[in-house]
């Protein structure tokens, strides 16, 4: 009898397509709400708009966030194809009950990654691809935003979005120093870029099977286990600063308990990365710093 292995890169494409269509629907619905809020301004009332018009304008948000997430995952997928490491097409995760409309996207790597440099390249390709889309989208979205006076005081229950360093840079370059009592009324495209930056920062956490975990292991080897524990400690500490970190900390702890704190080994674990990849690892750290938000979300109490 002849044993024939399953062909690589074979997918039930209809599953990926259905999930993508559902995610387009959920993110566009969220985008519709963001556009209505943008037109209304802080505390204002949106003019009457048809449902079709709101849905069309909702694509400002959904198109942005899906482009960032899609390019992120395609970066991983293309790297897997380049190295002939079996992987699935991206799975998008629709979720209509949260303010992003999605839980993100992922690919499944269906065989062990043999070498450290391959693991590194696959791990870093996604964040770089998503970041290269998110940054221009952020600048365009902020440029399309407008300056409005804030209500004084802000009503209780107002949702406040954190400002990553790259957002502060874009805002300062495009709008200068904002007058006291004013803030940017963000265009939905800027919100889409914001969620893309948040997803990039979370994926770059040096934990387990996250992109940051792959990068950390490729650079540090077994010492990356200590970085994993430190990162989870940081997440738990941040939970006392912002409740929005509690969910992420719990998810990281679950990953640690299921997979363990040691990254699955590659056969050339002791061979150091070349200098070019070490520079790329430093760039990954810069991306993390630019995208990181100590308080991603908060409510006015």
Write the layout of secondary structure elements.
Blueprint: H1 13-40, H2 51-83, E1 91-94, E2 102-106, H3 116-143, E3 146-149, E4 159-161, H4 165-175, E5 182-185, H5 188-203, H6 211-220, H7 224-239, H8 244-259, H9 275-291, E6 297-299
Antiparallel strand pairs: 1-2, 3-5, 4-6
Verbal overview:
The protein has 301 residues and is mostly helical. It has one domain. The chain is built from nine helices and six strands, in the order H-H-E-E-H-E-E-H-E-H-H-H-H-H-E. The strands form three sheets. It has a two-stranded antiparallel sheet with strand order 1-2. It has a two-stranded antiparallel sheet with strand order 3-5. The radius of gyration is 21 Å and the shape is globular.
Give the gist of this structure:
This protein is mainly alpha-helical and 301 residues long.
Key features?
two-stranded antiparallel sheet, mainly alpha, 301 residues
Q: Which band does the percent of strand residues land in?
A: 5-15%
Number of folding domains? 1
Low-confidence runs: none
* Assembly state: single chain
* Number of helices, where a helix is a run of at least 4 consecutive DSSP H or I residues: 9
How many strand units?
Answer: 6
Written as H for each helix and E for each strand, in order along the chain, the element string is: HHEEHEEHEHHHHHE
| Fraction of residues in helix | 55-70%
The helix-and-strand class reads mainly alpha
């Amino acid at each position: 009898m002849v044993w024939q292995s399953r062909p690589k890169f074979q997918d039930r494409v209809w599953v990926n397509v259905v999930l993508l269509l559902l995610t387009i629907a959920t993110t566009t619905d969220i985008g519709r709400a963001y556009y209505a809020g943008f037109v209304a301004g802080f505390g204002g009332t949106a003019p009457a708009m048809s449902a079709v018009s709101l849905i069309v304008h909702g694509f400002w948000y959904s198109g942005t966030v899906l482009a960032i997430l899609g390019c992120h995952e395609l970066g991983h997928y293309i790297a897997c194809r380049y190295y002939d490491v079996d992987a699935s097409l991206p799975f998008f995760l629709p979720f209509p009950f949260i303010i992003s409309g999605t839980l993100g996207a992922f690919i499944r790597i269906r065989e062990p990654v043999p070498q450290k440099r391959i693991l590194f390249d696959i791990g870093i390709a996604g964040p770089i691809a998503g970041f290269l889309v998110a940054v221009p989208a952020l600048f365009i979205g902020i440029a399309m935003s407008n300056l409005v006076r804030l209500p004084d005081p802000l009503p209780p229950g107002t949702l406040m979005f954190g400002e990553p360093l790259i957002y502060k840079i874009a805002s300062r370059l495009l709008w200068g120093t904002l007058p006291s009592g004013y803030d940017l009324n963000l265009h939905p495209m800027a919100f889409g870029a914001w969620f893309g930056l948040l997803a990039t920062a979370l994926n770059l956490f040096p934990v387990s099977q996250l992109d940051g975990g792959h990068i950390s292991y490729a650079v540090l080897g077994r010492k990356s286990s200590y970085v994993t524990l430190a990162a989870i400690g940081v997440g738990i500490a941040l939970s006392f600063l912002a409740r929005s970190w509690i969910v992420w900390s719990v998810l990281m702890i679950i990953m640690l308990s299921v997979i363990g704190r040691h990254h699955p080994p590659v056969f050339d674990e002791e061979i150091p990365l070349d200098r070019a990849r070490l520079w790329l690892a430093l760039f990954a750290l810069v991306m993390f710093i630019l995208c990181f938000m100590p308080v991603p979300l908060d409510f006015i109490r």
